[in-house]
Amino acid sequence: MLVELTMHTTPAHPSGKSPIDGIRILALLPDQWSKDLTQANGEITIRVETGDDTTTTAQIQRTVTEALTDPAISHWRLHTCHPVPAATDPGPGSAPG
């Protein structure tokens, strides 16, 4: 399952401008997940591919929320966890739009 995660800092710790936090969060997510940090200024956006079509967004949210309890990055909260739709194949003979 491919999802896009967005995290924001808590109101008590609004200065989340460090890309180091994004790297820390990546390190705390499961090793078997493919991860891509796409943004780390003001908010953190990470694309995650679990490699398992049976994993649900609820399971991913629980795993990420648990990782965010680490004291080094506990000032971050998961804001969104959206599935990324698979690219559609237009099929043979279809011309790009």
Principal-axes shape call:
globular
Helix content: 10-25%
Question: Whole-number radius of gyration?
Answer: 15 Å
Element order, helices and strands? EHEEHE
Q: Strand fraction band? A: 25-35%
Q: Number of DSSP helices?
A: 2
Which sheet architecture does the biggest sheet show? 4 strands, antiparallel
**C-alpha end-to-end distance:** 27 Å
Mean pLDDT: 86
In which order are the strands of the major sheet placed? 2-3-1-4
Q: Structural class from helices and strands? A: alpha+beta
- The total strand number stands at 4
Taking pLDDT < 50 over at least 5 consecutive residues as the criterion, the unreliable ranges are none
What does this structure look like?
- It is built from two helices and four strands.
- The protein is of the alpha+beta class and 97 residues long.
- It has a four-stranded antiparallel β-sheet, with helices on one face.
- A hairpin with a 2-residue loop joins β2 (34-40) and β3 (43-49).
- The chain is globular.
- The mean pLDDT is 86.
